Amino acid sequence: MKIAMGNDHTGIELKNIIKEFVEGKGYEVIDLGTNAPESCDYPVYGEKVGRAVADGEADLGIAICGTGVGISLACNKVKGIRACVCSEPYTAKLSRQHNNSNVLAFGSRVVGSELAKMITEAWLDAAFEGGRHQRRVDMVMEIEKR
Fold first, then answer.
1. pLDDT in tens, 57-88
2. Domain-wise residue ranges, the chain
3. Is 133 a catalytic residue?
4. CA–CA separation, 89 vs 99, rounded Å?
5. What is the band of 38 on the pLDDT scale with cuts at 50, 70, 90?
6. What is the third-level CATH fold of 2-145?
7. Looking at residue 88, what is its pLDDT?
8. CA quadruple 130, 55, 118, 28: dihedral sign
9. Which of 65, 75, 84, 86 is catalytic?
């Protein structure tokens, strides 16, 4: 399984930690983030992650900026993306089980590396439950068409 990862300048260190963590779990990582410490624009990297997932280049995505909010907003502008900002593992797990999220976002200024690993693990280990949740995900995706 391939994971697209993207980040702005605030997320370089955490991206590298999570990249190593994810690769250690057997996933292939497509690194679409910056590695330059100079200030850059998170929408560029959010769109890259969103497009990689939407176009099938990657199965899932992980996006990191200062809070996770800005980069997730950019991801969610790409048709077919359901990015969720998570600051703890329970929301990450439920975002996959109930919302079929395909991009995980978190903030390098919000969560530390160990918590980010727990969030990532909970998200990757969870699976979409379908059933009543499918109808709701379909409703959300219909909004995109209008």
1. 999 999 999 999 999 999 999 999 999 999 99
2. 2-145
3. no
4. 15
5. very high
6. Ribose 5-phosphate Isomerase B; Chain: A, (3.40.1400)
7. 98
8. positive
9. 65
Nearest to 61 by CA among 39, 40, 78: 78
Residue 145 CB neighbours (<10 A): 6
Specify the pTM.
0.97
Q: Which of 40, 84, 86, 98 is catalytic?
A: 98
Confidence of residue 35 (pLDDT cuts 50, 70, 90): very high
Specify binding-site residues for D-ribulose 5-phosphate.
Answer: 8-9, 66-70, 99, 109, 132, 136
Do residues 86 and 103 make contact, with C-beta atoms less than 8 angstroms apart?
A: no
Q: Please give the Cα distance from 131 to 84 (Å, whole number).
A: 20
Q: Report residue 14 as tokens.
A: 């955490």
- Residues 69, 43: contact at Cβ < 8 Å? no
98 is catalytic: yes
Percent of the residues in the chain that have a pLDDT greater than 70, as a whole number = 100
Q: Which of 79, 68, 7, 5 has the alpha carbon at shortest distance from 37?
A: 7
